[in-house]
Write a sequence for this structure.
DNA sequence: GACATTTGACCTAT
DNA sequence: ATAGGTCAAATGTC
C-alpha cells in the first residue's frame, strides 16, 4: 500500500487505540452508560474505517482475518473460483446473534416485531421438530438503502409467549431513531465529519432523504423519517440499543456523514446507485464495505500480510 | 394504485 | 434426499 493510503489507516488505528485506552481509564471510574457507549461507538467506527481502507486498498481477501464467531457453514463463503478468472470472492462474514423476547399476553401483535427497526416479512417456513413456523424478515430499507439486515422470528416451543429472534447482519440503513440519537450523542463525530454550519447540515440532510417521499405515498419509511428533522420518535430506544448495539448504528451514522460531504452530483449519483445496484454494493460509494464485520469476538489481524 | 403479507415453488447446503 | 432459506406471484389492506 502506498504511503498516501497508509497514513489515514494508521490514523484510524491510532485513534482506535487511544479511544480504547480512554475507555480502559474510564473503567476504573464511575462512568455513565452513555459515555461508555459513546467511546465504544467511536472505537468501532475507527476500526471499521480502517478495515474498510484495507479492504479497498489491498484486495486481501485471502488474508487471515477472522471476525467473531463464524459458522463453518453458510456464514462464510470463502474464496472460490480464483483460478479461472483470478477474481476473489468476497468473504461473507455476516454477524448473527439471537434474542429471546417474552411477550405479555394481549400484546402479541406488536410483540417481538417492534424492535425499533422497520421490517418486511418475506417468508415463513415450518421447521422440522418445531411447533411453530419460523418467519423471515428483512429490513424495509433493503431496496432503497441496501440494508441487508434480516431477522428470523420463531415462537418458542417451550413457552409460546417467548419469541426467539435471530438477527443476521447489521443495519446499514438510517432509521430516524438512530439518526436523532446519534446526532445528539456524538458531537465529536459531527465535528470531524461535518464542516458546514448547522443550517447547511439541515438542508443537506433533508436533501439526502428527500428521495424517500418522492413516491408521494405514506409508507413505513415515511413514518420512520417523520417530516422531518431530529424528531425524536420514542420507539423503544432502549430496546433498540440492546438489539443493535453500536456496530450497526455507528456504521450507519458514519455512512450518513459521508453522504453529507458529498457534492450535489455525488449525492444524486449515490442515491441512484443505491437504488439500482440491488444488493451487491449498496454502500460502495461511501467507502464502507458491505462485508459485515462482527466486533463481538476476537479479531485476528496480521497486518504484516498486507502490502503497505 | 402502492405497498405489505402470504404461500407454494425454487435454490442451496448438508 | 432433505431441511432451511429465499423468491415471486397472488392476495390483502389502506
Amino acid at each position: 500500500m502506498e504511503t498516501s493510503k497508509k497514513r489515514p489507516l494508521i490514523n484510524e488505528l491510532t485513534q482506535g487505540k487511544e479511544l480504547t485506552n480512554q475507555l480502559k481509564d474510564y473503567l476504573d471510574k464511575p462512568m455513565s452508560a452513555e459515555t461508555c457507549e459513546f467511546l465504544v461507538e467511536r472505537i468501532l467506527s475507527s476500526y471499521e474505517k480502517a478495515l474498510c481502507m484495507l479492504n479497498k486498498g489491498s484486495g486481501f481477501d485471502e488474508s487471515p482475518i477472522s471476525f467473531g464467531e463464524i459458522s463453518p457453514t453458510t456464514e462464510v463463503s470463502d474464496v472460490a473460483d480464483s483460478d479461472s478468472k483470478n477474481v476473489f470472492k468476497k468473504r461473507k462474514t455476516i454477524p448473527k446473534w439471537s434474542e429471546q423476547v417474552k411477550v405479555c399476553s394481549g400484546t402479541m401483535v406488536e410483540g417481538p416485531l417492534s424492535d425499533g427497526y422497520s421490517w418486511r416479512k418475506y417468508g415463513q417456513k415450518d421447521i422440522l421438530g418445531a411447533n411453530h413456523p419460523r418467519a423471515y424478515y428483512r429490513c424495509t430499507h433493503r431496496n432503497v438503502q441496501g440494508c441487508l439486515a434480516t431477522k428470523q422470528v420463531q415462537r418458542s416451543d417451550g413457552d409460546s409467549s417467548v419469541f426467539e429472534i435471530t438477527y443476521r447482519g447489521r443495519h446499514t440503513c438510517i432509521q430516524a431513531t438512530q439518526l436523532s440519537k446519534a446526532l445528539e450523542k456524538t458531537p465529536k463525530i459531527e465535528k470531524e465529519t461535518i464542516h458546514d454550519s448547522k443550517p447547511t447540515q439541515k438542508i443537506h440532510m433533508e436533501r439526502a432523504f428527500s428521495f424517500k417521499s418522492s413516491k408521494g405515498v405514506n409508507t413505513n419509511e415515511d413514518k420512520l423519517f417523520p417530516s422531518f428533522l431530529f424528531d425524536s420518535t420514542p420507539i423503544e430506544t432502549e430496546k433498540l440499543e440492546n438489539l443493535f448495539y453500536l456496530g450497526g448504528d455507528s456504521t450507519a451514522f458514519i455512512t450518513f456523514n459521508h453522504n453529507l460531504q458529498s457534492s450535489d452530483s455525488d449525492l444524486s449519483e449515490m442515491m441512484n446507485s443505491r437504488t439500482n445496484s440491488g444488493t451487491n454494493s449498496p454502500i460502495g460509494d461511501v467507502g464502507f464495505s458491505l462485508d459485515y464485520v462482527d466486533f463481538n469476538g476476537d479479531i485476528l489481524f496480521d497486518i504484516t500480510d498486507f502490502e503497505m
